[in-house]
Write a structure and sequence with these properties.
heterodimer; A: about 270 residues; Rossmann fold; 2 domains; 3-stranded antiparallel β-sheet; 10 helices; about 40% helix; B: alpha/beta
Chain lengths: ~270, ~190
């Protein structure tokens, strides 16, 4: 990046400030991505100097909200990687269907599109009523979006295509009502969702689950933090439970790998020990 | 600073879009086996057809071709291909990070992001090569890479299947070295 941007040592100052002032720990975030997002925000908001950027973050809690939302990646979509949802439908959820209560954790759920996708699949399989969908993110603002279940109508074409590619056979538009340029998902999908802030870096395990999904979150962490979070998931997963990661994420090099067996063709592992 | 100073290339990043696969298929068979640096290839492609690109390129070179994995250490003589739908970032510790953030120039992977992060990590030890393509992705990345001392190579627009991308690259970095397709492998081999 050029000299106008945030330099490496300035990035480290910000990381230290965020931990000290707000308790947000970005210490083990992968640096190239973090720096790129810092520079993007710095340019976007037109700060004349790094000192002013730093001061604003430290002294203005409202700006901090924007900062966290822009620094973390909140790109997501419904039925993202349709083949993955097909696998859930065909191999994972039929196993969980035998349980009296199904507890699922969406870790780093962002604005909730994947949580609604899960609720749709569960409802179609007749399992939603005995399921609990815990969905967490470090950012309270994205959780607010997730709670409302209101998304841009523009995205519904892609979501609908994904839904069909994942094995969905209903009319996707029956799950939401469209108004102006927004789509609001049905309340019947929301009843079993529980949203809460949780920071994978600093917060502990809070329950035991049969299925944990954390897709395209670990790539923003360095190897040490990836390992730590995988152990957190391991502690939070019941025996014979399932762990689902993003299409380019793996537990292969982790200390927990020997306890898990991967389902063929997808980034889903079953805890066998 | 003399351009050919003993300042060995530590990484070559190749970016391309429409019309660039054909170039790689012509260039790869002529790459030397003992290449002293890794190559990262950012090619725009459809999300489907996952591993076929690696297979195809693998069949054309004695170097190892693989899809880039998150947090992988890049090694000399290996060619890393950006996975569909992920940006590839070069970390200062010599590893790759994948990133599923917003598209840039309507592209993910975006060539700009890899050029920029590679230049930030490697400066003059980086060489960038921009090939044929139908949009301007890569031009901004070349500009910032050049400002950090990276060596810039661009496929000659007149020999490019689609000249828009190399032309945009040239407009961004006027001092870039322009190469005809048949000059590319020789240039890479002597970096």
């Amino acid at each position: 990046m050029d000299s106008k941007g945030v330099k490496d040592e300035e990035m480290e100052l910000l990381v230290a400030d965020l931990l000290e002032v707000y308790g947000y720990d970005f210490t083990n975030y992968a640096r190239a991505s973090l720096k790129r997002r810092l520079n993007r925000l710095y340019a976007l908001d037109g700060f004349p100097s790094f000192a002013e950027f730093r001061y604003r973050i430290k002294s203005d809690p409202d700006y901090l909200k924007r900062f966290v939302e822009e620094i973390t990646v909140n790109v997501t979509e419904m039925f993202r990687d349709p083949q993955f949802y097909k696998k859930l439908r065909e191999e994972v959820l039929p196993v969980l269907a035998t349980y009296p209560l199904i507890r699922i954790w969406h870790a780093g759920c962002s604005t909730g599109e994947e949580v609604y996708s899960m609720a749709i699949v569960l409802s179609e399989m007749g399992l939603l009523q005995k399921s609990l969908l815990y969905a967490t993110d470090l950012n309270p603002d994205v959780l607010e979006v997730a709670r409302t279940g209101i998304y841009s109508l523009n995205h519904m074409k892609l979501h609908s295509e994904n839904y069909i590619a994942s094995g969905g056979t209903k009319d996707f538009s029956s799950y939401y009502t469209a108004k102006y340029d927004r789509a609001k998902f049905k309340d019947s999908l929301k009843g079993k969702m529980i949203y809460a802030t949780h920071n994978l870096v600093s917060d502990k395990s809070f329950n035991e689950f049969q299925l944990i999904l954390c897709r395209n979150v670990l790539i923003y962490f360095d190897k040490d933090l990836q390992e730590k979070v995988l152990h957190l998931f391991d502690q939070s997963l019941e025996q014979l439970g399932f762990l689902a990661l993003g299409s380019k994420e793996t537990i292969r090099f982790s200390g927990i790998a020997t306890k898990y067996k991967q389902l063929e063709g997808e980034k889903v592992w079953r805890k066998t020990k | 600073m003399a351009q050919d100073e003993v300042n060995g290339c530590k990484l070559l990043v190749i970016g391309g879009s429409a019309g660039s696969l054909e170039v790689l298929l012509q260039v790869f068979p002529h790459l030397r086996k003992d290449l002293a640096f890794p190559i990262v290839v950012i090619m725009h492609r459809k999300a489907a057809a996952e591993s076929t690109l690696e297979d195809l390129l693998n069949s054309k070179t004695q170097l190892k071709v693989k899809e880039a994995d998150d947090k992988e250490t890049i090694r000399p003589g290996v060619i890393y291909i950006a996975p569909a739908d992920y940006h590839v970032l070069i970390e200062k510790d010599g590893t790759l990070s994948l990133d599923a953030s917003e598209k840039i120039n309507y592209c993910r992977p975006a060539i700009d992001i890899t050029f920029e992060t590679a230049a930030d990590s490697l400066g003059p030890a980086l060489t960038c090569l921009l090939l044929s393509g139908a949009n301007a992705d890569g031009a901004n990345g070349l500009r910032s890479a050049a400002s950090l001392g990276a060596r810039i190579l661009i496929q000659d627009p007149t020999t490019s299947d689609v000249s828009y991308m190399p032309q945009a690259g040239l407009a961004a970095v006027k001092s870039a070295t322009v190469l005809a397709i048949k000059e590319i492998s020789g240039t890479i081999n002597s970096l």
